Amino acid sequence: MARAGLTADRVTEAAAELADEVGFDNITVSALARRFGVADASLYSHVKNLKDLRVRVAILAARDLADRLADATAGRAGKESLAGFASAWREFARTRPGRYQATQLPLDPAVVAESAGHLRIMSITYAHLSAYGLAEPDLTDAIRLLRSTYQGFFSLEASAGFNHPRDLQDTWTKILDVLDVALRHWPSNPQGNDHEFPH
């Protein structure tokens, strides 16, 4: 009955919805089975185990995020692209918190290589910074700066960690202004320290 309509895609989508409700780290096969009204064993025809389920959710979430980032940066360059990218990522973290957490799951390189969403995120990340003219290793350093800034902000925002009365959106806008200035005036590498670093 209930199990007749189950597919791997349906199970993964339901797991992503559950993650947004209770947190990615809190999804379990048992909780998902209760949502479908079936025994735990019924789900193992569609997912191997909890690890497999979480990887599937991470792949789904990456696809969702990639679509949002692509839409937010299309036809834009420089600061406009930076702001579009950052704000789309922030909105994803706010409205799809479990899926956002899933995108942070460390995955086997072979899995990433087969995940269209993860590959698109990497491609869009590099492309939206192209107007700043950064070469390696500066480009990698810049991406690490942006990623750590965004994720720190998202984490504090999600936990209500900003207690000052200043409007949070005003702070976000200022952060993007500062990042744009930093990218446009990126310091050159000291002589003799221009070798490439791993990402």
UniProtKB/TrEMBL annotation:
Q: Which residues form the HTH tetR-type domain?
A: 5-65
Q: Which InterPro entries match?
A: Homeodomain-like_sf (IPR009057), HTH-type_TetR-like_transc_reg (IPR050109), HTH_TetR (IPR001647), MT1864/Rv1816-like_C (IPR025996), Tet_transcr_reg_TetR-rel_C_sf (IPR036271)
Q: Which UniProt keywords apply?
A: DNA-binding, Transcription, Transcription regulation
Summarize which parts of the chain are annotated to bind DNA, as ranges: 28-47
A Pfam family cross-referenced in the UniProt record is: TetR_N
PROSITE patterns annotated for this entry?
HTH_TETR_2
Which SUPFAM superfamilies does the record cross-reference, listed alphabetically? Homeodomain-like (SSF46689), Tetracyclin repressor-like, C-terminal domain (SSF48498)
Q: Which domain of life is it from?
A: Bacteria
For molecular function, the Gene Ontology terms on record are: DNA-binding transcription factor activity; transcription cis-regulatory region binding
Cross-referenced Gene3D superfamilies? Homeodomain-like, Tetracycline Repressor, domain 2
What is this protein's name? AcrR family transcriptional regulator
